[in-house]
Amino acid sequence: MDYLNKMRSFVGNKEEGPRVHSLDYLRGMMAFMIMIYHYLIWVSDLYGAETFFGRIGVYGVSIFYIISGMTLCLVYKNSLSFTSSSISSFFIRRFFRIYPLLWVSMLLTLLLDARSVYSNSHLFLSLTGLFGFVDPTKYIGLVTWSIGNELVFYSLFPLLIILFKKNRPLFFTLTTSLVLVNFYYTFFVFDALSTLHVQWGEYVNPLNHIMLFVFGVFMGLSTLKNNAVISNGTLKLFLLLGVIGLFFYPVSGDLIKIIQGWERIFLVICSCIICFTVYNVPWKLPNWVHLPLSNIGKVSYSIYLLHPICFMLLIKLNNAGLNLKIRYLFVLYVIMAFGVSNLFYYFFERPFVGVGRRLTDRKVKVLEK
């Protein structure tokens, strides 16, 4: 019992802010399906704009950005203020939430992908997280480009909240400008006759995704939770329509087809509807459903960053003598990704989140004294 208590103390019991279970469910499901999507594109060509996993590959990440804007608002919209201590506390907590696992994923990628050679500037931009601000293509790892986008969004978030509280006209001017910049990418930057692969550098630019985060912020600021303005039945109907629209809207061909033009606007609206309704519907799930969904939501960041590592390691082992068929390799891949992600979440992520919390709590106490 003493051992268990010591381990609980080491891991820590506090999360960064209150957990929103419904958004955990959605975040976890997106992380799981993105993990499957990547496996499919790494071992086959079973994807495209018309396929379920093709849509997940693009709009699973889009939903991450929307959820990010929503959850940051839910946690910080009342506490964040225009003071150095408040803003520095926000960035300190974000640092300890994002960077430790990001560095681990980069280090493991470098170890497993020894054939790749990176310049000093590439390494510097990647390790500092500045690649999202300077050159979004200078990342290390298969999925870390999106974390560079997140870091850019985090840098804007305190300004958005402060303007919302202090200067609404300027808040709406800034958010509208950001959305219009994203519209420029949607309608003028991408060439529908080319491919996503050819235009990857434009796609990973934060300006190409900023409207998703902004829409999430809007929804976090105007949530209907515990408000009977819209009935639960109506919300569930909109959720169903959002899912149908996202996955069955008739578009086919290369994935570029669903990230440009009016097709993208429609699919972004469907993604926003899904996030908004999932949060506002009062879900009452039995424990046998709630517990696994809640767990995968908690470890979703680890799943997202570490599943490519698991895949690369398994491929090396398979080539070295395992010789498993693709379907058996997939089962081992899923089991390994979940196991590794849970270990890293409970014994690495959460302790570092706790460090950020303790540092900022101590800072507040010193200022109060």
Provide a brief overview of the structure.
By secondary structure, the protein is an all-alpha fold.
If you had to describe this structure to a student in words, what would you say it looks like?
This is Acyltransferase family protein. It comes from Rufibacter roseus. Keywords: Acyltransferase, Membrane, Transferase, Transmembrane, Transmembrane helix. This protein has helices at 2-11, 21-43, 52-76, 84-112, 120-128, 131-134, 145-166, 168-189, 200-203, 210-221, 232-248, 261-280, 287-298, 300-322, 326-368. 75% of the residues lie in helices and 0% in strands. By secondary structure, it is mainly alpha-helical. Mean pLDDT is 90; it is low at 1-16. It has a domain at 26-283. It has 15 helices and no strands.
Q: Assign an overall shape.
A: globular
| Percent of residues in beta strands | under 5%
> Stretches where pLDDT falls below 50 for ≥5 residues?
1-16
Helicity level: over 70%
Termini Cα gap: 38 Å
User: What is the count of helical runs?
Assistant: 15
